[in-house]
Structures are given as C-alpha cells and as structure tokens.
Design a protein that fits this description.
Shape of chain B: globular
Structural class of chain A: alpha+beta
Helix content of chain B: 25-40%
Largest sheet of chain A: 4 strands, antiparallel
CATH topology of the largest domain in chain B: FAD/NAD(P)-binding domain
Structural class of chain B: alpha/beta
Low-confidence stretches of chain A: none
Order of helices and strands of chain B: HEHEEHHEHEHEEHEEEEEHEEEEHEEEHH
Oligomer: heterodimer
Largest interface: A-B, 27 and 26 residues
CATH class of the largest domain in chain B: Alpha Beta
CATH class of chain A: Alpha Beta
Radius of gyration of chain B: 21 Å
Low-confidence stretches of chain B: none
Number of strands of chain B: 19
Largest sheet of chain B: 8 strands, mixed
CATH topology of chain A: Folate-binding fold
Shape of chain A: globular
Number of domains of chain B: 2
Strand order of the largest sheet of chain A: 3-4-5-6
Number of helices of chain B: 11
Mean pLDDT of chain A: 97
Number of helices of chain A: 2
Radius of gyration of chain A: 14 Å
Bound molecules: flavin-adenine dinucleotide, zinc ion
Number of domains of chain A: 1
Number of strands of chain A: 6
Strand content of chain A: 35-45%
C-alpha cells in the first residue's frame, strides 16, 4: 500500500502513522454534552467501502493527512492535507 | 449420533460407511422465537445455550456464508484466563472453566490442550507488572506462576535470552491456558444446537432488520423475511454494518489481523509463547505447523488479507526471539476482520430497540470467549437479565465513562487495543 503525500509524493505505507476516522478533525465544543462527545470519540460509521481517515506522514514531512480510500480493496483514492480540510470546514 | 472410541473402531473396521451429516440443512421458517445473526463461534454457542440452558429450541442461526467461515475459523486458537480488570476477569475465568469441560459437554473433541501460556518480561518493571497480573489471576481463582530466567530456560531453552534490545528476564506461566481446535469448537456447538432442534441456516445473509414502534419484529434476508421478537447481532467484524440496519452506530472500527503457519515440523514448541514487546506470539499446532501472529495492520479494513509490512515485522520479531525458526518455511498467511472497541473490551447487551441484542467488540481475543459469551448472551436473551459473569459488558459505558475496561490503558483509540 502506498500513499501519495501532497508534499513528499508517493511513499510506502510504513512511513505513515494511522490515527483513525477523519471525524477526529471535527472536535466538539467542551460543553457539547455526553452524546456528542460519545459520537466523536467512540461511535463509528465503519464503512466497508469508501472511508476517510487521518494519517500522519511520520517518517517524512510530518504533515497530517486526510486519506480517502477503500477499506475492502485498500485502494487509495485521494490524499489531502488535514490543514486544508480543516480550513475548508471553518 | 454419539461419538465414542468404540464407534470410531467399529466404523474403521466397516469402511466408515455409518457416519451421517452432523447437522440438518433446513429451509428457513416464516417465524422463530429468536433469531441469531451470524454463525461464528459466538452465534453458535449462543444458540446451543439458549436451547440447552433455557429450553428455547424454536430458534435459528442465520449465516451469510458457511458455518465457521469467519474469524472462528481464522484465529490462532489461544485460550487463556489472564485478564486483569473487574468485568473481564470473572468473564474469562468462567470461559476457561467452560473450556475445560467442553469436549465432554458437546461430545465433540475440541482438542483443548492446556499446554500453558507463557508471557515474557524484559525488565524489572515488567517483572513487577507480571507479578501483579499473576496475583490478580490467582485472586480470581485461576493459576499463575512467575518464572525467573533459570526457570524459564528449562521450559524454553531455545529463546535468545541475551537479546540486546529485549533481554529476557523471565515469564509469567499460566498452565491452564493453551490452544484448541478452532473448527471443532464451531462444529461441536453447531451439532449440539442442531440436535436440540435449532435451525442452522447457511447461505442466508441478513439484509435488513424490521423494527416497529421501537420493537424488533424480524429480519429481511436473501432467503426471505423471517419474523422474530428477539434478534441478536453476533457478526464480529461486520457488526457495524448489521447494526446500521437497525439505525445504530456502534463504538467499533473494523481492522485486519493477520496470522501465519509454517510447514509441519516435529514437536519443538511445547507452549504458547507471547512476546509482547515484539508484538509476536507463537504455538505449534498438533499437525506440527508453527502458528504465529502479531499485531493489527493498524488501518481500518474489511479485506480479510493484510499487507507485507506487518508480515515482515512479525517475521523479524520471531527471528529476534527464537532464531531457530529461521529455517522453517511459511506455508500460508491470511487475515480476519476484527471488531475493535475503544477500550478493547467486548459488548454483550440489549439495545435501544426492544428485543434487539448485540454481542460484539471482541477485538482479537474472542476465540477464548466463545463458550462464556454464548452462555451470557443466551442468559440475557432468555431472562432479560445480564449474567453475573458478563454484567460489565455494557454498551453505554463509553458514553458515561463508567465501567470502562481498558486492560492496556491505551485510551479511546480503537486500533490500539
Ligand atoms: C488472525 C486472527 C487470530 C486470532 N487469534 C485469536 C486467539 O489466539 N485467541 C482468541 O481468543 N481470539 C483470537 N482471534 C479473535 C477471534 O477469532 C474472534 O474474536 C472471534 O472468532 C469472533 O467471534 P465469532 O467467532 O462469532 O466471529 P465470526 O466467526 O467472524 O462470526 C461472525 C459471522 O457472522 C456472519 N455474518 C456477518 N454479516 C452477516 C449478515 N449480514 N448476515 C448473516 N451472517 C453474517 C459472518 O459470515 C461470520 O460467519 C483471532 C482472530 C484472527 C483474525
Ligand atoms: Zn509528506
């Protein structure tokens, strides 16, 4: 499995650290309540198919990335800088 | 048909013509008292105990593939009762006791071999932690022995004791732990359930869950609709998808875990050896193959196959620990889909839908749990009450934060357990 880092180019999966669902970028307000925090921290769509998750190019530039990929075929469809995604969310 | 030594002898002398199919292949009925989705170890043991302990025999197990084709037939078969936290401790202790009587209980040889599980330690601090775990195991009524280096060397002379990075200080020996024959466990429970009247329906995928006014009414399947007032989701790595049919999101992320087996060798590894620092463990099957594995591939996956980096890591860890295995050839590798929870502990509970139950979140340790999980889920489905050995496996513990069972204290990241 290879991931196309927007900064470094195509690199081996071993250079990347996996964090989990890209839901991690949508951190709720501290007082959002139990249900919202439960959904953020624990509950997952967990799709068999296309998913978006958060990786870090740990062994490269260090950037956090949002990777759109397929959990059944392991194909990687798109890689964006998490900072760009965050900015678009704002 | 009962199995016995005499029977094997007689069949052997008469050309093995008297053996019959071990379970029926029934057509699904329009309605059952209860339906279990998933014919893996947990689903089949649940059906068995519903029939045996609670007299519920008008029930069905619906399996989309074939019985035992999921994780129950893909795991490395380690059975142990060395959990630590209240909630887990009494549950796995109960499961180990059920294992000890399982072949007799099912009249089916599950080849449970209590060869001992040894967990290595590599520093003074780890020795202390092992002693603490051992004491917890003894307090829960199970067994543990702390072996120093000399004691360990007598059992495992082939380890590299002076490894530069992880010198071996000793190990925690759990004598009653060991391995079992994975398929036999699934088949034994299947046969026992079938004999009591349970319909085991294969090639029957559940595609929808019918709910009316907050109550479950039945399921939609590739073989038609089936009505039932009680439905249990027991689908391991696929739990999230089946729960979504009932409008639920579960605290589960599915990950791939690989395992490997070598060509058959003469007996050389007599125990289960676990090398936590290398994320490596190994045992030798009764056929002679070295069965070994490591950690998750670490990214969410439904592929039932892993990638090469983890394979390389596992081989390296094996060579670090026991260089003697370097000449053995790897025969096969495979993967299974693991239902990972945020605290690494499972869920056996009711849901917000009346009559709908979930049994999931077994991470990579659900084989040893097969007997006790079915026992507890059957109890919950039949009586509406949590069984005392599984009362901690609540779905709402994540939201409330109360009663979390995070054995390794790695926090709420699903893949770190
Ligand atoms: C490589 C590997 C090594 C492991 N090693 C160990 C170990 O040493 N010790 C240990 O204790 N545990 C181990 N495990 C974990 C253990 O195998 C699992 O936790 C356990 O088997 C899961 O429960 P199960 O047997 O019910 O799952 P499964 O056998 O996966 O059963 C679930 C069933 O549900 C069916 N299903 C899914 N969706 C549907 C649907 N929509 N309709 C109908 N049916 C459906 C599936 O086809 C499947 O047969 C390991 C797992 C793997 C993959
Ligand atoms: Zn990079």
């Amino acid at each position: 499995m290879r991931i196309e880092c927007p900064i470094c180019g195509s690199r081996d999966r071993r250079e990347f650290y996996y964090r989990g669902d890209a839901i991690a970028l949508a951190r709720p307000a501290p007082d959002a309540g139990d249900d919202v925090w439960d959904a953020y921290l624990h509950l997952r769509d967990n799709p068999a198919g296309e998913t978006r998750d958060l990786w870090q190019h740990e062994g490269g530039c260090g950037a956090w990335l949002v990777v759109t990929r397929d959990t059944v075929t392991h194909a990687v469809h798109a890689v964006e800088l998490a900072s760009d995604v965050k900015r678009a969310m704002a | 048909m009962r199995f016995s030594g005499l029977r094997v002898l007689r069949e052997g002398l008469t050309g093995n013509r008297g053996w019959t199919a071990q379970w029926r292949d029934p057509e699904p009925q329009a309605e059952y008292d209860a339906v279990i989705i998933g014919g893996g170890g947990h689903g089949l043991s649940t059906a068995y105990y519903l029939a045996k302990n609670h007299g519920m025999t008008n029930i069905a197990v619906l399996e989309k593939g074939y019985l035992g084709g999921g994780n129950v037939g893909r795991n490395t078969t380690i059975v142990r009762g060395n959990y630590f936290l209240p909630g887990n401790s009494e549950f796995y202790s109960h499961s180990l006791k059920l294992w000890e009587g399982l072949s007799e209980e099912l009249n089916y040889n599950v080849m449970f071999s209590q060869r001992g599980v040894i967990t290595l330690f590599h520093s003074d601090a780890q020795r202390d932690a092992s002693a603490r775990r051992g004491n917890a195991m003894i307090n829960q009524g199970d067994d543990a022995e702390l072996l120093d280096r000399a004691g360990l060397r007598k059992l495992l002379p082939y380890l590299d004791y002076d490894n530069g990075r992880f010198p071996i200080y000793g190990g925690l020996l759990h004598r009653r732990g060991g391995t079992a024959r994975h398929d036999a466990v699934a088949w034994g429970y299947a046969r026992g359930a079938d004999q009591r009247g349970v319909d085991l329906i294969q090639q029957c995928e559940v595609t929808g869950i019918d709910i009316e006014n907050g109550k479950v009414r039945g399921v939609q399947t590739t073989r038609g609709a089936i009505r039932a007032k009680k439905v249990a989701i027991v689908t391991a790595g696929r739990s999230g998808q089946v729960a979504a049919m009932a409008g639920m999101r579960l605290p589960i992320e599915s990950h791939v875990l690989q395992a490997f087996v070598s060509e058959g060798l003469k007996p050389v590894i007599d125990h289960v050896v676990s090398f936590g620092m290398g994320h490596f463990y190994i045992s030798q099957s009764d056929k002679g193959g070295l069965v070994f594995g490591g950690d998750l591939d670490f990214y969410a996956s439904y592929a039932q196959r892993g990638n090469l980096p983890m394979m390389e890591h596992v081989m390296e860890a094996g060579m670090t620990l026991m260089p003697m295995i370097g000449k053995a050839r790897v025969l096969r590798s495979w993967g299974g889909i693991m239902d990972m929870t945020p605290d690494g502990s499972p869920i056996i509970d009711k849901t917000e839908t009346e009559g709908l139950f979930v049994d999931c979140g077994w991470c990579y340790g659900g084989f040893k749990a097969v007997p006790a999980s079915g026992f507890a889920l059957a109890h919950l489905m039949a009586t509406g009450q949590h069984h005392e050995t599984a009362a901690g496996f609540r779905l709402d513990r994540f939201r409330s934060g109360e009663g979390l069972m995070d054995e390794e204290a790695t926090g709420s990241q699903h893949n770190l357990h």
